[in-house]
Structure formats: C-alpha cells, structure tokens
Design goal:
Elements lengths: L2 H9 L5 H8 L16 H4 L5 H11 L7 E5 L5 H10 L2 E6 L2 H13 L6 E5 L12 E7 L8 H11 E14 L22 H10 L2 E8 L1 H13 L8 H5 L3 H13 L3 E10 L4
Parallel strand pairs: 1-2, 1-4, 2-3, 4-5
Antiparallel strand pairs: 5-7, 6-7
The chain binds S-adenosylmethionine.
Length: about 280
Amino acid sequence: MTDELDRVRDHYRATGLTDRLRTALAVFGPEEGRLKPEQLATLDQFHTRGLVATAELANLAAITAGMSVLDVGSGVGGPARFLEATYGCKVTGVDLSAPFVEAARYLTARTGQDGKVSFETGSALALPFKDGMFDAALLQHVAMNITDRPLLYREIRRVLKPGGKFATFDVVLNGGDPHYPVPWARTPGESFLLPADATCEAIEAAGFGTLVRRDDTAAAKAWFAEFRASGPPPSLNLGVVMGQGFAEFATNLGRNLMEGRLGILTAVFEAVPVN
Ligand SMILES: C[S@@+](CC[C@H](N)C(=O)[O-])C[C@H]1O[C@@H](n2cnc3c(N)ncnc32)[C@H](O)[C@@H]1O
C-alpha cells in the first residue's frame, strides 16, 4: 500500500462512525424503524451541492432501471442509495475506508435497501471487479485524493462495458494554491488536485470519449453563499461523519471557490475501444 493511500485512509478513518450515526439517527425514532433515503441526505452526500448534484449527474449519465452501476469512492453510500431508490438500478459501491463501508452498509440496512445496494472495501486503483461488469460508473469528489490519475481512469474503463458511461463530479485546481484543511484533506499531503483540462485529458487517454463537460464552479459558489446565509446547519450534517473539524473544512472549500483557487468540474464520458 502506498504512502499516499495510507494518508488518505487516515483522513477518512472515522473512528466509531457507525455508533455516531446510530446515536444521531435516534431523532427519527427507534432503531427498527425504516428510514427513507432522502432523510439521510444532509449527512450522506459527501460533496458540494449535496443531493442536487447527485441527481444532476445521474440525469446527465442517463441512468436507467436495467443498469448495473458502480459508485467509485462511495463514502457512506448516499449517492448509491439515491440511484437505486430513484431508478431501480443495481448499485455497487467501493471505498478505501473500511469504517465508511461499514457505515454505508448500516445506513443501507436502515433504509431497507440491502440486497439491492452493496458496498465493498477496496481501492479505486485496483478495483475488486472483473472486466466489463458495469453499464455506468460514478466518481464524485474522489479524484482529488488520487495521485495516479492514469491508473484510476484505466481501472474505471476496465470495469465498464464498451459504450458504458463514466460520470465524474470533482474539485479541480483553478487559479492558486488552496487553503487547508478541506473536506478531503487536512494537509496538501493527501490532496492531488489537477486542473479541469488535465483531468479530462487523462480520462480521454484512458479510453473515453467526452459526451458532456461543464464548469459548475458558479453553481457551487452560489450554493456556499446560500448555505452561509441560511443560519446554523441541520443537526444531521457531515460533522457526524467527519468529526468536529468539518465546519472548518467546509468553510475553506467555500473560500477556495470564492477566491478562484478551486473549481468544480462535471463531465460524462463514454467508454470507447482501447488498443
Ligand atoms: C469526499 S468523499 C465522497 C464520497 C462519495 N463519493 C459522496 O459523494 O458522497 C471521498 C471518498 O473517496 C474515498 N476514496 C479516496 N481515495 C480512494 C481510493 N483510492 N479508492 C477508493 N476510495 C477512495 C474516501 O474514502 C471517501 O469515502
């Protein structure tokens, strides 16, 4: 295991996460009570613009019921549960962080989606799946933790069927060095940002053709401004997942976007034949 992966895993170590979630979710009543996936949206969509961004990305990727979808870097599983609940597709999540995978399975049992949505612990750089298994793959706010982009995108290409869709929504380097800590990294040692052009070039070089490419920085800035103006966050927020420092991480991400240091890229690609 590389030093980089160890540092990233340490950033998402989330000790006692499932117990923290169990305690936080007591606001919805007894443990046996079934939850709706959308009740978890303020703490299980670990990316800028939350559930709205996942819904937009799924729509751009034209997800449908018959598909088998892979969520790479699936976090605590919110996007995967949303996809299954909305489209009825089969969803598999894979994530480097064992505590996140345990939490994703717990939350999925609470929404009654176990059996339809599953999670595995594993690295995006060595996906634990056979070639050509999936119709679509999502990658939301994960690539900035990964230094070997050519390998990341080749792995995603490998597990997709020919013509399969790859939808990415990620933070990109824009006009300067970011302020740390940010939600994906306490220090620059676990942050491996690329500009949007270099990201798309690396994806195309791995055997993809571009279908959609969009700069979503303005939408992200508007979302942060609205969030700041709307008063204290809900009690169920990503601080439950990442601990007390999360408010500072999120503030810095907003500041980095506002100051033009970082941007947000949304893009969808199609797997093309590779030599
Ligand atoms: C900011 S969270 C985003 C989670 C999820 N995609 C979402 O949007 O809710 C980043 C996630 O990527 C995972 N991750 C980072 N590097 C990874 C790698 N090399 N392989 C698999 N997962 C990784 C982390 O463990 C974490 O769960």
